[in-house]
Amino acid sequence: MKIYTADKNCLNILRVSVLVLTFVLIVLCGEVLSFIPIIMIVLSVIFAVVGFFTAIVYLPVYFRKLSYTITDNKIIKKSGFFFYKTQMMQIKTIQFSTTVSTPFSKITGLNFIFLYAYGGMMTVLFLDRHDFDEIDRRLKSVYAGKEDKSVS
Predict the structure, then answer these.
(1) Which of 29, 55, 136, 150 has the fewest CB neighbours in a 10 Å radius?
(2) Stretch 109-118: mean pLDDT, rounded?
(3) Is residue 17 within 8 Å of 24, Cβ to Cβ?
(4) Residue 128 neighbours by CB distance under 10 Å
(5) pTM to 2 decimal places
(6) Contact 18/51 with Cβ under 8 angstroms?
(7) How does residue 148 score in pLDDT terms, banded at 50, 70 and 90?
């Protein structure tokens, strides 16, 4: 059994991205709606509150609660902010998977694995590059075992 957590570099990149996007939206709001000051002020305040809440409160709590436990026969995902969710998937029921690794993923931590099983899907998000490769190798070994059984 091994427990994987979200990459902290990814958290910092997402926080900066959200704050930059918030700043851009506030500037655009000021430029486009300068002739309607009350709407401009209200929208700017809404963008600022939502952006800062997301970057300062939501993302750190979500990343702290996000974990993946992989045993010999199960993958367990725990996540949430207000409501905590536990999602379990039997490894033997996985039909196929999709792996996504972004450019500079060793630095950013933007590595994802999508697992598809009978009637469901699980996303494994924000993995460190080493953890991503380790899980990918493990899944490939499980798939190789399935193919060997189906051939004989």
Answers:
(1) 150
(2) 91
(3) no
(4) 19
(5) 0.83
(6) yes
(7) low
Give yes or no for residue 87 having a pLDDT over 80.
Answer: yes
User: What is the distance between the terminal CA atoms of the chain, rounded to a whole angstrom?
Assistant: 30
Contact (Cβ atoms closer than 8 angstroms) between residue 111 and residue 132: yes
Which residues have a Cβ under 8 Å from the Cβ of 122 and sit 6 or more positions away?
75, 77, 87, 89, 114, 115
Say what the pLDDT of residue 10 is.
Answer: 93
Detail the DSSP E strand segments found in the chain: 2-5, 67-70, 74-80, 84-90, 94-101, 111-117, 120-124
What CA–CA distance (Å, rounded) separates 88 from 92?
12
Residue with the two structure tokens 């974990």: 67
3-state class (DSSP) for residue 43: helix
Reading the block at residue 77, the tokens are 């995902």
Residue the block writes with tokens 């990814």: 10
Nearest to 49 by CA among 33, 25, 83: 25
How distant, in Å, are the alpha carbons of 31, 46, 53, 99 from that of 12?
29, 23, 15, 22
What pLDDT is stored for residue 146 in this prediction?
63
